[in-house]
Amino acid sequence: MKLIVPNILILFLAYVVSGVENANDLHCSGFCSNCTDSVNVACIQEFFSIEEGSDTGRIRALAQMYYSGFEVRDKKKAAELYLKLAEAGDSDAMFKVGRLYRRGEGFDEDREAATKWFSKGALEKGNILCCLQLVQMHQSGSDNDETYARWSSLAEKLADDGDAEAKYFVGTSYKYGAGFPLSINKAVVWLEQAADQGSTGAMCDLIDIYYLEEGHVDFEKARYWLGELKKSEDDWRDTLGKMLKVKPDEVEVHFAKIEYGLFGSNKERAIYPVKRRPVLDEE
Predict the structure, then answer these.
(1) Cα 239 to Cα 246: distance, rounded to the nearest angstrom
(2) Residue 100 and residue 102: Cα distance in Å, rounded?
(3) pLDDT class for 42, splitting at 50, 70, 90?
(4) Mean pLDDT of 179-187
(5) Residue boundaries of the structural domains of the chain
(6) pLDDT at 146
(7) 5: closest CA among 47, 46, 34?
(8) Burial 144-180 (b: 16+ CB within 10 A, else e)
(9) pLDDT at residue 179 in the model
């Protein structure tokens, strides 16, 4: 069998996502002679044989491998596998299937099918991401006002009743105007609730707002959430650096320059070269 590079990345993905307890179980158990020190994609596919009734974790791992496409990108096969999981009642797969239909990836683009799966995820499983996709899909056009109000109200209810992650997603949706009207004030309300529940992502967004958002700059609050982030996450410099588009070891220097007025204008201290997107729309 021909080895495919980078096989160590494929092994890591399959091992982590599938939930297999022993990484050695991912070898092909004799299908080829190279499995003692490397992994072949075909062998992993054999291990994840759907016909043999693989469990949910293994199906999801194979679907993700096809979607991410290390050396075997096939979004049609990924879509088929996610659909299998969604039909079995998997909430995350309902979101994935809806998004694939909405984007026309793996399936033909189909707004009605996307709405069907997002609705099932939101109404039957309380999936906040499904609900927020529906909010985005119905945010414009007077004909959609009633439908939009229904989904946006449900999204806020799910967030209010839900965990930190749900509140975080609604907060970022308000922050970036994705589905909800752009409102930094409302974003702060949801993000602070999420941060109080331990969401480091929400802490980062609050730091961003209080250091950089014109009209909302508050260095005392920014320093407070920076302190909370430091207590909550060891790799906080890397986390903030990625969000702010600066090197991790320059994060604190950058904030210090902002506080001491070392930038000549708001334009100079703005560090986003492209329009920011909410987390819920990222891969």
Answers:
(1) 10
(2) 5
(3) low
(4) 91
(5) 181-277
(6) 81
(7) 34
(8) eeebbeebbebbbebbeebebbbbbbbbbbbbbebbb
(9) 85
Among left, alpha and beta (phi > 0; psi -120 to 50; other), residue 111 is alpha
CB atoms within 10 A of CB 231: 10
Report how far residue 265's alpha carbon sits from residue 73's, in angstroms, rounded to the nearest whole number. 45
- b/e sequence 97-113, b meaning 16+ C-beta within 10 Å: bbbbbbeebbbeeeeeb
Answering whether pTM is above 0.85, one says no
Contact status, residue 237 vs residue 251, Cβ threshold 8 Å: yes
Which residues does 201 contact at the CB level (< 8 Å), separation at least 6? Answer: 168, 172, 194, 279
What 106-113 contacts at long range (C-beta under 8 Å, 24+ apart), as own/partner pairs, is 106/67, 106/75, 106/76, 106/77, 106/78, 106/79, 106/80, 106/82, 107/79, 111/137
Please report where in the chains the tokens 């069907």 appear, as a residue. Answer: 116
Contacts within 8 Å (CB) and 24+ apart, 274-279: 276/176, 277/176, 277/178, 278/169, 278/172, 278/173, 278/175, 278/176, 278/178, 279/168, 279/169, 279/172, 279/201
